[in-house]
Design a protein that fits this description.
Radius of gyration: 34 Å
CATH superfamily of the largest domain: ABC-type transport auxiliary lipoprotein component
Structural class: alpha+beta
CATH architecture of the largest domain: 3-Layer(aba) Sandwich
Number of domains: 2
Strand order of the largest sheet: 8-9-10-11-12-13-14-15
Order of helices and strands: HHEEHEHHEEEEHHEEEEEEEE
Distance between the termini: 79 Å
Keywords: Cell membrane, Lipoprotein, Membrane, Palmitate, Signal
Helix content: 10-25%
Number of helices: 7
Protein name: Curli production assembly/transport component CsgG
Strand content: 35-45%
GO cellular component, one term: outer membrane-bounded periplasmic space
CATH topology of the largest domain: Rossmann fold
InterPro entries: Curli_assmbl/transp-comp_CsgG, OMP/PagP_B-barrel
Number of strands: 15
Protein backbone atom coordinates (compact mmCIF):
# COMPACT_ATOMS: atom_id res chain seq x y z
CA UNK A 1 0.00 0.00 0.00
CA UNK A 2 2.80 2.41 0.90
CA UNK A 3 4.54 1.68 -2.38
CA UNK A 4 1.31 2.52 -4.20
CA UNK A 5 0.95 5.83 -2.31
CA UNK A 6 4.59 6.76 -2.94
CA UNK A 7 4.16 5.94 -6.62
CA UNK A 8 1.16 8.23 -6.89
CA UNK A 9 2.97 11.05 -5.06
CA UNK A 10 5.95 10.68 -7.38
CA UNK A 11 3.70 10.65 -10.44
CA UNK A 12 1.84 13.81 -9.32
CA UNK A 13 5.13 15.60 -8.63
CA UNK A 14 6.46 14.59 -12.02
CA UNK A 15 3.26 15.80 -13.69
CA UNK A 16 3.52 19.17 -11.92
CA UNK A 17 7.10 19.56 -13.17
CA UNK A 18 5.96 18.83 -16.72
CA UNK A 19 3.14 21.36 -16.43
CA UNK A 20 5.56 24.01 -15.15
CA UNK A 21 7.88 23.31 -18.09
CA UNK A 22 4.97 23.53 -20.52
CA UNK A 23 3.96 26.81 -18.93
CA UNK A 24 7.37 28.25 -19.83
CA UNK A 25 7.23 26.80 -23.33
CA UNK A 26 3.86 28.39 -24.08
CA UNK A 27 4.92 31.70 -22.55
CA UNK A 28 2.35 31.60 -19.77
CA UNK A 29 3.03 34.16 -17.02
CA UNK A 30 4.26 32.57 -13.81
CA UNK A 31 6.12 35.41 -12.03
CA UNK A 32 5.08 38.96 -11.08
CA UNK A 33 6.13 41.55 -13.64
CA UNK A 34 7.72 44.96 -13.02
CA UNK A 35 5.94 48.11 -14.15
CA UNK A 36 6.93 49.21 -17.63
CA UNK A 37 6.57 52.23 -19.87
CA UNK A 38 3.36 52.38 -21.88
CA UNK A 39 3.30 50.61 -25.22
CA UNK A 40 4.10 52.61 -28.33
CA UNK A 41 1.62 51.96 -31.11
CA UNK A 42 2.24 52.18 -34.84
CA UNK A 43 0.09 55.33 -34.92
CA UNK A 44 2.35 56.93 -32.30
CA UNK A 45 5.35 56.49 -34.59
CA UNK A 46 3.38 58.00 -37.48
CA UNK A 47 2.52 61.06 -35.37
CA UNK A 48 6.11 61.61 -34.32
CA UNK A 49 7.37 61.50 -37.91
CA UNK A 50 5.10 64.32 -39.12
CA UNK A 51 7.03 67.32 -40.50
CA UNK A 52 7.38 70.09 -37.93
CA UNK A 53 5.22 73.22 -38.19
CA UNK A 54 6.62 76.71 -38.47
CA UNK A 55 4.67 77.73 -35.39
CA UNK A 56 2.78 75.51 -32.95
CA UNK A 57 -0.96 75.99 -32.56
CA UNK A 58 -2.42 76.66 -29.11
CA UNK A 59 -5.35 74.32 -28.73
CA UNK A 60 -7.85 73.56 -25.98
CA UNK A 61 -9.74 70.39 -25.10
CA UNK A 62 -12.56 70.77 -22.57
CA UNK A 63 -13.84 67.24 -22.82
CA UNK A 64 -13.42 64.28 -25.10
CA UNK A 65 -15.48 61.58 -23.49
CA UNK A 66 -17.15 58.25 -23.97
CA UNK A 67 -20.51 59.02 -25.60
CA UNK A 68 -21.57 55.41 -26.08
CA UNK A 69 -22.93 54.83 -22.57
CA UNK A 70 -22.16 51.15 -23.08
CA UNK A 71 -21.17 48.72 -20.36
CA UNK A 72 -18.90 45.73 -20.68
CA UNK A 73 -20.75 42.62 -21.85
CA UNK A 74 -21.09 40.02 -19.11
CA UNK A 75 -22.27 36.42 -19.18
CA UNK A 76 -22.97 36.33 -15.44
CA UNK A 77 -25.38 39.05 -14.35
CA UNK A 78 -24.94 42.79 -14.64
CA UNK A 79 -21.59 44.47 -15.16
CA UNK A 80 -21.45 48.18 -14.34
CA UNK A 81 -17.94 48.69 -15.73
CA UNK A 82 -17.93 50.78 -18.90
CA UNK A 83 -16.76 49.24 -22.15
CA UNK A 84 -14.68 52.32 -23.05
CA UNK A 85 -11.98 53.92 -20.82
CA UNK A 86 -13.12 57.19 -19.27
CA UNK A 87 -9.78 59.00 -19.60
CA UNK A 88 -9.98 59.65 -23.32
CA UNK A 89 -9.33 63.40 -22.87
CA UNK A 90 -5.93 62.59 -21.41
CA UNK A 91 -5.18 60.22 -24.30
CA UNK A 92 -6.08 62.95 -26.81
CA UNK A 93 -3.83 65.51 -25.10
CA UNK A 94 -0.92 63.04 -25.21
CA UNK A 95 -1.54 62.49 -28.93
CA UNK A 96 -1.54 66.26 -29.52
CA UNK A 97 1.82 66.52 -27.76
CA UNK A 98 3.30 63.64 -29.76
CA UNK A 99 2.30 65.26 -33.05
CA UNK A 100 4.44 68.35 -32.15
CA UNK A 101 1.95 70.54 -34.02
CA UNK A 102 0.00 71.77 -31.01
CA UNK A 103 0.40 73.37 -27.59
CA UNK A 104 -2.40 71.81 -25.51
CA UNK A 105 -3.65 73.97 -22.66
CA UNK A 106 -5.45 72.83 -19.52
CA UNK A 107 -9.20 73.15 -19.89
CA UNK A 108 -10.65 69.89 -18.59
CA UNK A 109 -9.96 70.85 -14.95
CA UNK A 110 -9.63 74.59 -15.40
CA UNK A 111 -11.45 75.24 -12.10
CA UNK A 112 -8.54 73.62 -10.25
CA UNK A 113 -6.08 75.77 -12.17
CA UNK A 114 -7.98 79.01 -11.41
CA UNK A 115 -8.28 78.10 -7.73
CA UNK A 116 -4.56 77.49 -7.49
CA UNK A 117 -3.76 80.81 -9.16
CA UNK A 118 -6.08 82.54 -6.71
CA UNK A 119 -4.25 80.89 -3.79
CA UNK A 120 -0.94 82.13 -5.21
CA UNK A 121 -2.28 85.71 -5.44
CA UNK A 122 -3.69 85.62 -1.91
CA UNK A 123 -0.44 84.25 -0.49
CA UNK A 124 1.65 86.90 -2.21
CA UNK A 125 -0.63 89.72 -1.04
CA UNK A 126 -0.49 88.52 2.55
CA UNK A 127 3.19 87.64 2.98
CA UNK A 128 4.99 89.81 0.45
CA UNK A 129 3.51 93.18 1.35
CA UNK A 130 6.67 95.22 0.81
CA UNK A 131 7.47 93.76 -2.61
CA UNK A 132 6.79 95.52 -5.84
CA UNK A 133 3.16 95.06 -6.92
CA UNK A 134 4.21 94.24 -10.45
CA UNK A 135 6.22 91.27 -9.19
CA UNK A 136 3.12 89.89 -7.47
CA UNK A 137 1.02 89.58 -10.65
CA UNK A 138 0.82 86.26 -12.43
CA UNK A 139 1.37 85.97 -16.18
CA UNK A 140 -1.86 85.69 -18.17
CA UNK A 141 -3.22 82.30 -19.13
CA UNK A 142 -2.84 81.15 -22.71
CA UNK A 143 -6.05 81.21 -24.69
CA UNK A 144 -6.85 78.80 -27.50
CA UNK A 145 -7.54 79.78 -31.07
CA UNK A 146 -9.00 76.34 -31.72
CA UNK A 147 -11.02 73.98 -29.58
CA UNK A 148 -11.22 70.23 -30.14
CA UNK A 149 -14.57 68.53 -29.60
CA UNK A 150 -15.96 65.05 -30.21
CA UNK A 151 -15.62 61.75 -28.46
CA UNK A 152 -15.97 58.00 -28.66
CA UNK A 153 -19.34 57.67 -30.36
CA UNK A 154 -19.62 53.92 -30.92
CA UNK A 155 -18.50 50.62 -29.43
CA UNK A 156 -19.88 47.65 -31.39
CA UNK A 157 -19.47 44.18 -29.92
CA UNK A 158 -19.16 40.93 -31.87
CA UNK A 159 -19.23 42.41 -35.36
CA UNK A 160 -17.37 39.29 -36.50
CA UNK A 161 -17.13 35.95 -34.69
CA UNK A 162 -15.99 32.53 -35.77
CA UNK A 163 -13.93 29.49 -35.00
CA UNK A 164 -12.58 26.18 -36.17
CA UNK A 165 -12.09 22.86 -34.41
CA UNK A 166 -11.64 19.13 -34.85
CA UNK A 167 -11.61 16.07 -32.61
CA UNK A 168 -10.56 12.48 -33.31
CA UNK A 169 -10.38 9.63 -30.82
CA UNK A 170 -10.44 12.00 -27.85
CA UNK A 171 -7.72 14.30 -29.25
CA UNK A 172 -8.94 17.69 -30.35
CA UNK A 173 -8.09 21.33 -30.88
CA UNK A 174 -10.11 24.45 -31.55
CA UNK A 175 -9.66 28.14 -32.13
CA UNK A 176 -12.12 31.02 -31.86
CA UNK A 177 -12.01 34.72 -32.60
CA UNK A 178 -14.13 37.77 -32.01
CA UNK A 179 -13.92 41.32 -33.34
CA UNK A 180 -15.31 44.44 -31.70
CA UNK A 181 -15.11 47.93 -33.16
CA UNK A 182 -14.63 51.39 -31.72
CA UNK A 183 -15.37 54.62 -33.61
CA UNK A 184 -14.13 58.14 -32.83
CA UNK A 185 -15.14 61.55 -34.17
CA UNK A 186 -12.91 64.62 -33.75
CA UNK A 187 -13.67 68.17 -34.87
CA UNK A 188 -11.75 71.47 -34.77
CA UNK A 189 -13.76 74.58 -33.86
CA UNK A 190 -12.61 78.18 -34.30
CA UNK A 191 -12.94 80.23 -31.10
CA UNK A 192 -13.11 83.41 -33.19
CA UNK A 193 -16.50 82.76 -34.76
CA UNK A 194 -17.49 79.21 -33.75
CA UNK A 195 -16.96 77.81 -37.24
CA UNK A 196 -16.31 74.07 -37.45
CA UNK A 197 -13.10 74.00 -39.45
CA UNK A 198 -12.70 70.27 -39.96
CA UNK A 199 -14.24 66.98 -38.84
CA UNK A 200 -12.54 63.58 -39.07
CA UNK A 201 -13.47 60.15 -37.86
CA UNK A 202 -11.56 56.93 -37.42
CA UNK A 203 -12.35 53.39 -36.35
CA UNK A 204 -10.33 50.53 -34.90
CA UNK A 205 -11.11 46.82 -34.69
CA UNK A 206 -10.44 45.05 -31.39
CA UNK A 207 -9.44 41.42 -31.80
CA UNK A 208 -9.84 38.61 -29.26
CA UNK A 209 -8.57 35.11 -30.02
CA UNK A 210 -8.62 31.80 -28.17
CA UNK A 211 -6.73 28.58 -28.90
CA UNK A 212 -7.46 25.34 -27.02
CA UNK A 213 -6.25 21.76 -27.21
CA UNK A 214 -7.42 18.72 -25.27
CA UNK A 215 -6.77 15.01 -24.84
CA UNK A 216 -9.42 12.73 -23.36
CA UNK A 217 -9.08 8.96 -23.56
CA UNK A 218 -9.48 5.83 -21.52
CA UNK A 219 -6.14 4.05 -21.25
CA UNK A 220 -7.94 0.94 -20.04
CA UNK A 221 -11.25 0.19 -18.36
CA UNK A 222 -10.25 1.85 -15.08
CA UNK A 223 -7.79 4.52 -16.16
CA UNK A 224 -8.65 7.79 -17.81
CA UNK A 225 -6.11 10.25 -19.15
CA UNK A 226 -7.16 13.85 -19.68
CA UNK A 227 -5.07 16.90 -20.57
CA UNK A 228 -5.86 20.43 -21.68
CA UNK A 229 -3.89 23.42 -22.90
CA UNK A 230 -5.04 26.78 -24.15
CA UNK A 231 -4.59 30.50 -24.10
CA UNK A 232 -6.67 33.56 -24.87
CA UNK A 233 -5.46 36.92 -26.09
CA UNK A 234 -7.59 40.06 -25.87
CA UNK A 235 -6.41 43.30 -27.44
CA UNK A 236 -6.51 46.01 -24.72
CA UNK A 237 -9.32 48.50 -25.31
CA UNK A 238 -7.15 51.33 -24.02
CA UNK A 239 -4.58 50.69 -26.77
CA UNK A 240 -7.32 50.48 -29.38
CA UNK A 241 -8.73 53.84 -28.23
CA UNK A 242 -5.22 55.32 -28.23
CA UNK A 243 -4.55 54.17 -31.79
CA UNK A 244 -7.89 55.49 -33.03
CA UNK A 245 -7.31 58.91 -31.38
CA UNK A 246 -3.76 59.14 -32.71
CA UNK A 247 -5.00 58.29 -36.20
CA UNK A 248 -7.65 61.02 -35.87
CA UNK A 249 -5.06 63.61 -34.82
CA UNK A 250 -2.83 62.72 -37.77
CA UNK A 251 -5.79 62.95 -40.17
CA UNK A 252 -6.74 66.33 -38.67
CA UNK A 253 -3.21 67.68 -39.16
CA UNK A 254 -2.96 66.51 -42.78
CA UNK A 255 -6.43 67.66 -43.80
CA UNK A 256 -5.73 71.00 -42.09
CA UNK A 257 -2.57 71.37 -44.19
CA UNK A 258 -4.46 70.39 -47.34
CA UNK A 259 -7.32 72.86 -46.70
CA UNK A 260 -4.98 75.59 -45.35
CA UNK A 261 -6.74 76.08 -42.03
CA UNK A 262 -3.60 76.14 -39.86
CA UNK A 263 -2.49 79.61 -41.02
CA UNK A 264 0.96 80.60 -39.78
CA UNK A 265 1.74 77.09 -38.60
CA UNK A 266 2.34 75.94 -42.17
CA UNK A 267 5.96 76.41 -43.18
CA UNK A 268 6.19 77.67 -46.75
CA UNK A 269 9.69 76.21 -47.08
CA UNK A 270 8.50 72.69 -46.28
CA UNK A 271 6.93 70.47 -48.92
CA UNK A 272 3.92 68.61 -47.57
CA UNK A 273 2.92 67.14 -50.93
CA UNK A 274 4.34 63.67 -50.30
CA UNK A 275 2.44 63.47 -47.00
CA UNK A 276 -0.79 64.66 -48.66
CA UNK A 277 -0.42 62.20 -51.56
CA UNK A 278 0.10 59.29 -49.16
CA UNK A 279 -3.00 60.35 -47.23
CA UNK A 280 -5.05 60.59 -50.44
CA UNK A 281 -3.99 57.08 -51.45
CA UNK A 282 -5.06 55.78 -48.05
CA UNK A 283 -8.46 57.48 -48.42
CA UNK A 284 -8.92 55.97 -51.88
CA UNK A 285 -8.14 52.51 -50.51
CA UNK A 286 -10.53 53.15 -47.64
CA UNK A 287 -13.39 53.77 -50.10
CA UNK A 288 -13.43 50.04 -50.83
CA UNK A 289 -13.19 48.88 -47.22
CA UNK A 290 -16.09 47.31 -45.36
CA UNK A 291 -16.63 46.11 -41.79
CA UNK A 292 -13.91 43.76 -40.60
CA UNK A 293 -11.13 45.53 -42.56
CA UNK A 294 -12.11 43.63 -45.68
CA UNK A 295 -11.66 45.01 -49.16
CA UNK A 296 -14.20 43.44 -51.51
CA UNK A 297 -13.63 43.69 -55.23
CA UNK A 298 -15.61 42.82 -58.29
CA UNK A 299 -13.68 39.63 -59.03
CA UNK A 300 -16.22 37.46 -60.82
CA UNK A 301 -17.35 38.08 -64.40
CA UNK A 302 -20.70 37.25 -65.97
CA UNK A 303 -19.49 34.06 -67.66
CA UNK A 304 -17.16 31.32 -66.40
CA UNK A 305 -16.02 27.91 -67.60
CA UNK A 306 -14.87 25.24 -65.19
CA UNK A 307 -13.47 21.72 -64.88
CA UNK A 308 -13.58 19.38 -61.86
CA UNK A 309 -11.92 16.13 -60.90
CA UNK A 310 -14.30 14.06 -58.75
CA UNK A 311 -14.15 11.10 -56.40
CA UNK A 312 -17.50 9.30 -56.69
CA UNK A 313 -19.11 6.57 -54.61
CA UNK A 314 -22.54 5.05 -55.15
CA UNK A 315 -25.03 4.12 -52.43
CA UNK A 316 -27.28 1.50 -53.99
CA UNK A 317 -28.80 -1.92 -53.28
CA UNK A 318 -25.59 -3.92 -53.60
CA UNK A 319 -22.86 -4.22 -50.99
CA UNK A 320 -19.21 -3.10 -51.19
CA UNK A 321 -19.60 0.13 -53.19
CA UNK A 322 -16.26 1.32 -54.57
CA UNK A 323 -15.00 4.87 -55.02
CA UNK A 324 -13.97 5.87 -58.54
CA UNK A 325 -12.59 8.91 -60.29
CA UNK A 326 -14.76 10.97 -62.61
CA UNK A 327 -14.93 14.47 -63.94
CA UNK A 328 -17.07 17.40 -64.89
CA UNK A 329 -16.77 20.36 -67.29
CA UNK A 330 -19.26 23.13 -67.74
CA UNK A 331 -20.18 26.80 -67.97
CA UNK A 332 -21.77 29.33 -65.59
CA UNK A 333 -23.73 32.47 -66.31
CA UNK A 334 -24.35 34.96 -63.49
CA UNK A 335 -27.89 36.31 -63.35
CA UNK A 336 -26.97 38.50 -60.36
CA UNK A 337 -23.71 38.82 -58.38
CA UNK A 338 -24.99 36.03 -56.09
CA UNK A 339 -26.94 33.71 -58.40
CA UNK A 340 -25.74 31.89 -61.50
CA UNK A 341 -27.06 29.16 -63.78
CA UNK A 342 -24.69 26.27 -64.42
CA UNK A 343 -24.77 23.73 -67.26
CA UNK A 344 -22.26 20.89 -67.25
CA UNK A 345 -21.42 17.52 -68.64
CA UNK A 346 -20.03 14.87 -66.30
CA UNK A 347 -18.63 11.35 -66.28
CA UNK A 348 -19.69 9.00 -63.47
CA UNK A 349 -18.75 5.40 -62.61
CA UNK A 350 -21.11 3.20 -60.60
CA UNK A 351 -19.32 0.19 -59.12
CA UNK A 352 -19.92 -2.43 -56.47
CA UNK A 353 -16.82 -4.57 -56.07
CA UNK A 354 -17.01 -7.85 -58.01
CA UNK A 355 -20.75 -7.31 -58.64
CA UNK A 356 -21.52 -4.51 -61.08
CA UNK A 357 -19.71 -1.64 -62.82
CA UNK A 358 -21.35 0.89 -65.12
CA UNK A 359 -20.04 4.09 -66.68
CA UNK A 360 -22.46 6.98 -67.06
CA UNK A 361 -22.18 10.35 -68.75
CA UNK A 362 -24.73 13.08 -68.95
CA UNK A 363 -25.74 16.70 -68.40
CA UNK A 364 -26.66 18.63 -65.25
CA UNK A 365 -28.39 21.97 -64.77
CA UNK A 366 -27.89 23.77 -61.44
CA UNK A 367 -28.82 27.04 -59.81
CA UNK A 368 -25.93 28.20 -57.63
CA UNK A 369 -25.86 30.77 -54.83
CA UNK A 370 -22.54 32.43 -53.99
CA UNK A 371 -22.54 33.85 -50.47
CA UNK A 372 -19.81 36.53 -50.84
CA UNK A 373 -19.48 37.31 -54.55
CA UNK A 374 -17.20 40.34 -53.98
CA UNK A 375 -14.65 38.54 -51.83
CA UNK A 376 -11.78 36.30 -52.84
CA UNK A 377 -12.99 33.56 -50.53
CA UNK A 378 -16.64 32.55 -50.57
CA UNK A 379 -18.77 29.51 -49.73
CA UNK A 380 -21.51 28.49 -52.16
CA UNK A 381 -24.45 26.09 -52.42
CA UNK A 382 -26.29 24.76 -55.44
CA UNK A 383 -29.00 22.39 -56.55
CA UNK A 384 -30.58 21.11 -59.74
CA UNK A 385 -31.40 18.09 -61.90
CA UNK A 386 -29.56 15.91 -64.36
CA UNK A 387 -29.51 12.74 -66.46
CA UNK A 388 -27.15 9.76 -66.71
CA UNK A 389 -26.70 7.92 -70.01
CA UNK A 390 -25.00 4.63 -70.79
CA UNK A 391 -25.68 1.56 -72.97
CA UNK A 392 -28.49 0.80 -70.55
CA UNK A 393 -31.71 2.67 -69.94
CA UNK A 394 -31.17 6.42 -69.16
CA UNK A 395 -31.48 7.44 -65.50
CA UNK A 396 -32.63 10.76 -64.07
CA UNK A 397 -31.71 12.37 -60.77
CA UNK A 398 -31.65 15.46 -58.65
CA UNK A 399 -28.53 16.83 -56.97
CA UNK A 400 -27.51 19.39 -54.39
CA UNK A 401 -24.18 20.36 -52.91
CA UNK A 402 -21.91 23.08 -51.70
CA UNK A 403 -18.31 24.07 -51.35
CA UNK A 404 -15.69 26.81 -51.11
CA UNK A 405 -14.17 29.00 -53.79
CA UNK A 406 -10.95 31.03 -53.61
CA UNK A 407 -10.00 33.56 -56.28
CA UNK A 408 -6.33 33.30 -57.27
CA UNK A 409 -6.61 36.43 -59.40
CA UNK A 410 -9.36 38.25 -61.29
CA UNK A 411 -9.87 35.34 -63.70
CA UNK A 412 -8.85 32.09 -61.98
CA UNK A 413 -10.33 30.45 -58.91
CA UNK A 414 -9.91 27.15 -57.08
CA UNK A 415 -12.94 25.20 -55.86
CA UNK A 416 -13.58 22.33 -53.46
CA UNK A 417 -17.07 20.88 -53.22
CA UNK A 418 -19.24 17.96 -52.16
CA UNK A 419 -22.35 16.82 -54.06
CA UNK A 420 -25.15 14.44 -53.22
CA UNK A 421 -27.05 12.74 -56.06
CA UNK A 422 -30.54 11.38 -55.42
CA UNK A 423 -32.12 9.08 -58.00
CA UNK A 424 -35.77 9.35 -58.94
CA UNK A 425 -35.86 5.53 -59.30
CA UNK A 426 -34.15 2.57 -57.65
CA UNK A 427 -32.64 0.93 -60.73
CA UNK A 428 -29.28 2.60 -61.48
CA UNK A 429 -27.56 -0.79 -61.28
CA UNK A 430 -30.54 -2.81 -62.53
CA UNK A 431 -31.71 -4.03 -59.08
CA UNK A 432 -34.76 -2.81 -57.19
CA UNK A 433 -34.59 -3.70 -53.52
CA UNK A 434 -36.14 -1.82 -50.60
CA UNK A 435 -37.71 1.61 -50.51
CA UNK A 436 -34.58 3.77 -50.72
CA UNK A 437 -33.73 5.24 -54.12
CA UNK A 438 -30.19 4.88 -55.47
CA UNK A 439 -27.86 7.66 -54.38
CA UNK A 440 -24.29 8.81 -54.87
CA UNK A 441 -21.78 11.01 -53.08
CA UNK A 442 -19.15 13.09 -54.91
CA UNK A 443 -16.13 15.09 -53.73
CA UNK A 444 -14.54 17.44 -56.24
CA UNK A 445 -11.56 19.72 -56.77
CA UNK A 446 -11.68 22.08 -59.69
CA UNK A 447 -10.71 25.33 -61.32
CA UNK A 448 -12.89 28.13 -62.72
CA UNK A 449 -11.88 30.52 -65.45
CA UNK A 450 -13.88 33.77 -65.61
CA UNK A 451 -14.06 35.23 -69.10
CA UNK A 452 -13.20 38.90 -69.53
CA UNK A 453 -11.09 41.47 -67.68
CA UNK A 454 -11.91 44.06 -65.03
Amino acid sequence: MRAYIYTRIFFCSFLLCILQACSSIFGLPSDPEKPTMGEVTSSTEELKTLPLPKEKIVIGVYKFRDQTGQYKPSENGNNWSTAVPQGTTTILIKALEDSRWFIPIERENIANLLNERQIIRSTRQEYIKDADKNSQSLPPLLYAGILLEGGVISYDSNILTGGLGARYFGIGASTQYRQDRITIYLRAVSTLNGEILKTVYTSKNILSTSVNGSFFRYIDTERLMEAEVGFTQNEPIQLAVTEAIEKAVKSLVIEGIQDKIWGKAIDSTTSYQALINEYKREKEDNNGRVIGNRYPGNYRQKVAVFANVEAQKVRDDYVNPKMNIGGKIGMKYFLTPNFNVEVNGNYFTLENKDIVKRNYYGPEVNLEYLLFPKYRFSPYIYGGAGAMYSKYKPQYKGQFGGGLEYMIDNNFSLRASAQYDLGFKDNWEGLINGKRKDQALRFALGINFYLGNK
